[in-house]
TrEMBL record:
Keywords: Hydrolase, Metal-binding, Zinc. It comes from Streptomyces pilosus. This is Peptidase M20. The keyword Hydrolase applies. InterPro entries: ArgE/DapE_CS, Bact_exopeptidase_dim_dom, Pept_M20_glutamate_carboxypep, Peptidase_M20, Peptidase_M20_dimer, Peptidase_M20A. It comes from the Bacteria. PANTHER family: ACETYLORNITHINE DEACETYLASE, BLL0789 PROTEIN. GO terms for molecular function: hydrolase activity; metal ion binding. The active site is at D112, E173. Residues 209-309 form the Peptidase M20 dimerisation domain. Pfam families: M20_dimer (PF07687), Peptidase_M20 (PF01546). Its cofactor is Zn(2+). The lineage of its organism: Bacteria, Bacillati, Actinomycetota, Actinomycetes, Kitasatosporales.
Length: 421
């Protein structure tokens, strides 16, 4: 049996920090260039312009880049006329075979923003001291660019003791990834670890867990009748829907890990007709997949016994996004990140959040995920969005050091997400 390849010494996190600091001026120039590209989720041309930019950078780093044009879908993944930008998938093999302990690591970012075309011209990139502003500066162009810069550090240091690095950039995360979801899940399968490049929380925390989401539509069917002459012959769907809203909202507080929000209520057409149909749209969020299922069953139970005789309720689950659950493996990833951060010179913690993203989809495939590895930022989705440029070198160095730590399975040989699968 041949001996495993001789490993180069791991670069020290402090050395990675020095290299990251030297790259800050270029990072800021690149960030200004990316922010100047309008790339809202519905701007296919703009998203693909960002993809072109990212592809050029990754190709220069030795990655093989694939662009996939996803099918046209609606907001919940059904085929329709919505056409998004491309999904970008870049791969680079490392120097360490999987049989010798090498791991496959996925870095995930998104290219789209929530802003309409023209926003970049009206509100261009600005730098006020150490705070950068502009559409998408934090969510997620700052994080995506930090990932690309960390890859440059790894190449410079010849720190390629991993089986494979995969860089995934999606075009539609801000609208729930309806077009890219299946591609993201396919890419994730077979990875040992995944690192989400969303920016860190405002206090610097990483993200260890994200709630899952399920969307439901409840259709209440009643019986129409003349409201003045013979109301007794009707069955008021609007009244049944009103009782149902109260019952569904009352589910909040029943469990610590699940919430329900009835966000849309529609009923009736004319005030002189007993309402024959009503519709509720609601969202469920839960920390665990089991929690989502538990709340879903409670919704079915509430719908099975409408308060108004003669009415019936149909329940449809329109969409779901799995939770990113904190696992033993992701806790080990966090421990590795905290160790690297301490060596760089700053403390590191993590939190859970109710927001969802592509990290949820990756976690749903069974791959351990740590998210929020971009620089510190905040006020996402608003005109006040900001990025703390002072945090950029530290977070780039942290990301590079974490790839080094995970790449040869140095954290724990038993925790790799699909190790040995």
């Amino acid at each position: 049996m041949s001996a495993p390849p001789r490993q180069r010494p791991r670069p020290h996190p402090a050395d990675l920090l020095g290299s990251a600091r030297s790259r800050l001026p270029r990072y800021l120039r690149d960030l200004a260039e990316l922010v100047a590209i309008d790339s809202g989720s519905y701007s296919r041309h703009g998203v693909n312009a960002v993809a072109d930019w990212v592809q050029t950078r990754l190709t220069s780093l030795g990655f093989t880049v694939e662009r996939i044009r996803p099918p046209a879908v609606d907001g919940v993944g059904r085929l329709s006329g919505l056409r998004t930008g491309d999904v970008l998938i870049a791969r680079k093999p490392g120097r360490l075979a999987e049989a010798d302990g090498g791991c496959r690591i996925l870095l995930a970012a998104h290219m789209d923003t929530v802003f309409e075309d023209g926003t970049a011209a009206r509100r261009p990139f600005t730098l006020d001291g150490t705070r950068a502003h502009g559409p998408g500066v934090s969510d997620d162009k700052g994080g995506m660019l930090a990932g690309l810069t960390a890859l440059e550090l790894l190449q410079q240091e010849e720190a390629e003791q991993y089986a494979e690095l995969v860089f995934l950039a999606t075009p539609d995360e801000e609208i729930g990834s309806p077009a890219s979801r299946r591609i993201t899940e396919e890419v994730a399968r077979g990875m040992h670890y995944a690192l989400g490049l969303e920016c860190a929380r405002e206090n610097g925390d990483l993200v260890l867990a994200r709630k899952g989401v399920a969307d439901f539509r409840l259709t209440v069917t009643g019986r129409a009748a003349h409201a003045g002459i013979e109301p007794e012959r009707g069955a008021n769907a609007a009244l049944a829907a009103a009782h149902l809203v109260v019952a569904l909202q009352a589910l909040n507080g029943r469990w610590d890990d699940g919430t329900v929000n009835v966000g849309v209520v529609r009923a009736g057409h004319r005030p002189n007709i007993i309402c024959s149909e009503a519709e509720l749209h609601l969202e469920v969020r839960a920390v665990t997949a089991a929690g989502l299922r538990r709340v879903g069953r409670a919704i079915e139970d509430a719908a099975a016994s409408p308060a108004v005789p003669g009415t019936t309720v149909t329940v449809e689950q329109l969409d779901d996004c799995p939770p990113m659950e904190a696992t033993r493996a992701s806790h080990h990833m966090l421990a590795a990140a905290a160790q690297a951060a301490a060596a760089i010179g700053f403390p590191l913690n993590a939190t859970s959040t109710g927001g969802v993203g592509d990290a949820n989809l990756i976690a749903g495939t069974g791959v351990p995920v740590l998210d929020g590895l971009g620089p510190i930022g905040g006020a996402d989705h608003s005109p006040h969005e900001w990025l703390d440029t002072a945090s950029v070198p530290e977070r780039i160095a942290l990301l590079a050091a974490l790839v080094v730590s995970l790449g040869d399975n140095g954290v724990d040989s038993d925790i790799g997400g699909n190790k040995g699968a």
